[in-house]
Amino acid sequence: MRIFNTLSRQKEEFVPLEEGKVSMYVCGPTVYNLIHIGNARPMIVFDTARRYMEHKGYAVNYVSNFTDVDDKIIKKANEEGVDPSVISERYIEECKKDMQALNVRPATTHPKATEEIGGMIEMIKTLIDKDHAYVAQDGTVYFKTRSFGQYGKLSHKNLDDLRSGGRSLLVSGEDQKQDPLDFVLWKPKKEGEPYWESPWCEGRPGWHIECSVMSKRYLGDEIDIHAGGEDLIFPHHENEIAQSEAANDKEFAKYWMHNGFLNIDNKKMSKSEGNFFTVRDISEKYDLQVLRFFMLSAHYRSPLNFSAELMEAAKNGLERIVTSVANLNYLMKSAADGEMSENERKLMEEAKRYIAQFDTAMDDDFNTADAISAIFDLVKFANTHVSESAGRAFVQAVKDEIVLLSDICGLIVDKQEEILDAQIEELILERQAARKAKNFARADEIRDTLAAQGIILEDTREGVKWKRA
Ligand code: AMP
Ligand code: ZN
């Protein structure tokens, strides 16, 4: 499997730190509003990468945060006259609903910045002790950018160029910086803002430190993959690398993946220009599976243009797969039992070629556009070769392959399967919480609900696993 690494700007063979395992951190949304369709792109493409890696047999530990302390959240809270946590909790819940509708599986862990302040203070202390950070007179703590020799390695920016243009990076209130390139790790509270005690002042963390800390806590000092939208390369991810590597003396992440931007009608998405859609807006007109299919029909690193025509094309494309599977289900009802005929076995060999084509595409930096073409080829194969005279074993085998490949893309094409993967995992998490709270009645109820849908749970040492009966 090859992954395009922003660090080296080339595709590299993927070699995990630990055999058979992948640790992956994806920067999540700031929760002050319903997520927009641009935010949905990293969720969908990296969820698909995760699904493919799991399909290949890797155990993926997938962490994605919610940024729940931020200027925009505070502003909205003040407008509504409520505590910022009311705003962030509301939009975390709404975001989870959208994720479920997009069939984006919940992360292994979804940490929230406000619950990790202790860890952030610890890391900032370490950075000060190692002379990578300093405290200004007003209690602001800055990272000393020039103390980290490899600064700029991700964004391929030259520190001197940055420094000469650096004055423009200064914003008001940051005049106590030793160098314009230094960035905030901790800042003093302002009137009406949430704050925490710290050794330096009552205040709150800068944005970048949260991901360094959450990634370390849930995945360790070194991880396999760190991902997000391309706007995060500089300064967010560059700063994360500086903080983590200066504090831990280890390479932070081996592979950096960035998705391209989503535009609307070839223009940058902008609320004030009126070309802006939330995922919820789209759900009023389309099944969100169509949005997912649309996002995967392009390579994740390419810019992607959203338009009504392209969504219609996506709807038709997805429909072709769903109809083919429905047809196979129909044929199955009257198909004869017994083993595959010689001819069917030969045809199955041909079908396997499309499956190999799918894997080749996904192995090449998750080329979902080509992978979906392979699904279409398989659908065409099914429509041509599976007829009323086909035996059940053959119909089932062809259907299973279409469903499996679609499922790796998170596309639900067999409408007989009512309950979504994401719903199952939500219920499993709820069951774990219920058990922890000793609410065994609710935990058993969830197990029974899932069993009624043909979902079997298995408690293992690595956590709860599930399968369809
Ligand atoms: P934010 O809430 O702005 O921090 O964004 C959350 C995630 O969405 C980040 O990974 C961003 O890079 C990504 N993102 C934001 N806008 C877009 C867009 N228009 N296209 C693609 N990704 C985006
Ligand atoms: Zn981040």
Poorly predicted parts = none
For the termini, the CA-CA separation is 31 Å
Helix segment count? Answer: 15
Mean pLDDT: 94
| Main sheet strand line-up | 4-3-9-10
Order of helices and strands: EEEHEHHHEEHEEHEHEEHHEHHHHHHEE
* Global shape: globular
Radius of gyration based on Cα positions: 25 Å
Number of strands: 14
Specify the helix fraction band.
40-55%
Strand content: 5-15%
Which structural class fits the helix and strand makeup?
alpha/beta
Keywords:
globular, single chain, binds zinc ion, alpha/beta, binds adenosine monophosphate
How are the SSEs ordered, and which strands pair?
Elements: E1 2-5, E2 10-13, E3 21-26, H1 37-55, E4 59-64, H2 71-80, H3 84-101, H4 117-129, E5 133-135, E6 141-143, H5 159-164, E7 183-188, E8 203-205, H6 208-219, E9 223-229, H7 233-248, E10 253-259, E11 262-264, H8 279-285, H9 288-296, E12 304-306, H10 308-334, H11 342-363, H12 368-385, H13 392-408, H14 421-436, H15 440-452, E13 455-460, E14 463-468
Parallel strand pairs: 3-4, 3-9, 9-10, 11-12
Antiparallel strand pairs: 1-2, 5-6, 6-7, 7-8, 13-14
Helix pairs in contact: 2-3, 4-6, 4-7, 6-7, 9-10, 10-12, 10-13, 11-12, 11-13, 12-13, 14-15
The structure holds adenosine monophosphate and zinc ion (ZN).
Zinc ion binds next to helix 7.
